[in-house]
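REQUEST ID: PR-0412
SUBMITTED BY: lab tech R.K.
PRIORITY: routine
TASK: structure prediction, single protein chain
INPUT:
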Amino acid sequence: MSVQSRISQLVLQYLGSEPALAPTAQQTRKTIQRPKPQLSSKGWQVVVVNYAETHRQELTFKLAGVGAVISVVSGAAQIALIDAAAQAGVRRFAPAEFEGPASLRPQPDALDRGKRSALERLRHHQATRGMQYTSFVCGILYERFGPGGMSASGIGVRSGIGAEGDYLINISQRRAQIPHDANGQPATLCLTSAEDVGKFVAAAISLQNWPLELRMRGDRMNVSRLVHITETVRGTAFEKAQHNTQSMQSALQLARSTGSMQEQLQVISMIATASGRFDFATPNLNSMVNITPTRFQAWLQEAWENH
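STATUS: complete
OUTPUT:
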C-alpha cells in the first residue's frame, strides 16, 4: 500500500463526516484496479478501471460526471488518469503528492517518482481545458516515527524507506541523524499525521477554488527539536550523529558503492531535508478549513504509549 492509497482511505472516511458533503457521500467514486468488497460494503461507489492506453476511452467514460479527482496512483497510470479526467470534463484534479512544495525539489530528483511529469501534464490541461489542479503539501508524515515506521501503518510499504529508522530517527534503537543546512543550522521541516492529512483533504473538497498548492501542517520544528521530543517521550537519551553537506555527500558515495538502494534513499532523504525540501512557512489550508491538527509530541506519546 502506498502513502497515497492509505491517505485515500482516510479521505473517504472523513468525507462522510463533512457536513457539506455528507448528503452526497454515497455518490463519491473510488477508482481501483482490483475489486475491493470492503469499500463497496461501506456504501462507496467503487469503479474498477484499467489505466492502459488501450482502455483510455473506457476510463474517460467512467470519469464522466465526476467533479474532482484525488489521485492515488503515480507514473504512467497517473498520466493516463490526468488525460482521461481532462477529456471527461473533470473540473479539478489533485495529483499524488503529499510531501514538500514542488518548487523546492532539485532537478534531477531521485525522489521524483513521476511527479514532475504529472504536474507538467496538469499545467497543460489547465491551459487548454481549464481543469483546475492543486498539490496537497503536508511535509513529513508523523507515521515515519511510529513503532515499526510508516510501513507498520500500511504506508510506504513498497517505497524502500518505509521501515522504522529509514528516515532520521530509529526510536527503538535510540539513534538519530541530524542534518544541518548550508548555514550550519539543524534543518527545519514540517510534519503532519496521516489522519489529519485525510481530514484536511476531505475538507478541501468543499473549497470554492483551489490554488496551485494547498499546504497543511500539524507541526514545524528543526531536527534537533524533533530528536529532543522523541528523547523526552521515551525518557532516554539517543545516540546522535551530526551531518553537514560534506558528510552527507560522503555517506551518499558510500551507499552508492555498496549498491544498496535503501541506503541511498535514506541518505538522499536526509540531504533533501537539509536543503529545506519539507519545510514551508505558510500552511494556507490550515486557515481555510476548521481543523485543529494534532501536534507531534502528543501524537508520538500516544503512538508509543504501549511500547
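NOTES: The first strand starts at residue 29 and ends at 32.
REVIEWED BY: pending
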